[in-house]
Amino acid sequence: MNAPTAPRRRPRRAVRREQLSDEVAARLRADIMTGTLRPGTFIRLDETAAALGVSITPVREALRTLRGEGMVQLEPHRGHVVVPLTRTDVEDIFWLQAAIAKELAATAAARITDAEIDELDRLNDQLAAAVERHDTEEIAAAEFAFHRAFNRSTGRIKLAWFLLHVARYLPGQIYAGDPQWGVLAIARHRELIGALRRRDVATIVTLTGAEFTDGAQRLIARLDEAGLWS
């Protein structure tokens, strides 16, 4: 009997191409969710590739991903066009995120350790420092790190993964660029940390849900202001 062969490793170039495709998809997804790319807009392969400094291939693959998500559709002989984004679509996305996040929050209240709560405190301090420096990218990264640590403390890895998957539709940069949002996020995190130390399940779940309610209201207000639904 022949010895089993080791699985082939994919070339580094293929891995990098997948990363580029994901990055392009994330950029286009955010532009669609914020109204920068409006419904009915055709996304041209060559123009998009040139604007993002990539080849056409990752753009084509990114559009295939977004087509599967229902964010663009392919019109024969014309290309990919942005499909309508309704107010209900936005509300549904945030509702789903809130539903998963509140379930995770209730579990965290029972399972999180004192050391993990201390880590959340440290991560919130990092967010506060980023907000003080008005560093948008650092704010977005610090906010992500805080919630990742919080969700991982539940031990419900699959459910946390589903939340991360849905969170792709949350355009974090528009929140990170709003100084008022940053100050509010820090204050809410401090309330959450206090509630975690008290094991106050009701407050933990309420605060978690409030973050998504606020996020939906801010995005809808931005899209209204941009005249997306006028």
UniProtKB/TrEMBL annotation:
Q: Which UniProt keywords apply?
A: DNA-binding, Transcription, Transcription regulation
Q: Which domain of life is it from?
A: Bacteria
Annotated GO MF terms? DNA binding; DNA-binding transcription factor activity
| Record-linked InterPro entries | GntR_C, TF_FadR/GntR_C, Tscrpt_reg_HTH_GntR, WH-like_DNA-bd_sf, WH_DNA-bd_sf
Protein name as annotated: GntR family transcriptional regulator
Q: Which organism is the protein's source?
A: Mycolicibacterium celeriflavum
Show the taxonomic lineage: Bacteria, Bacillati, Actinomycetota, Actinomycetes, Mycobacteriales
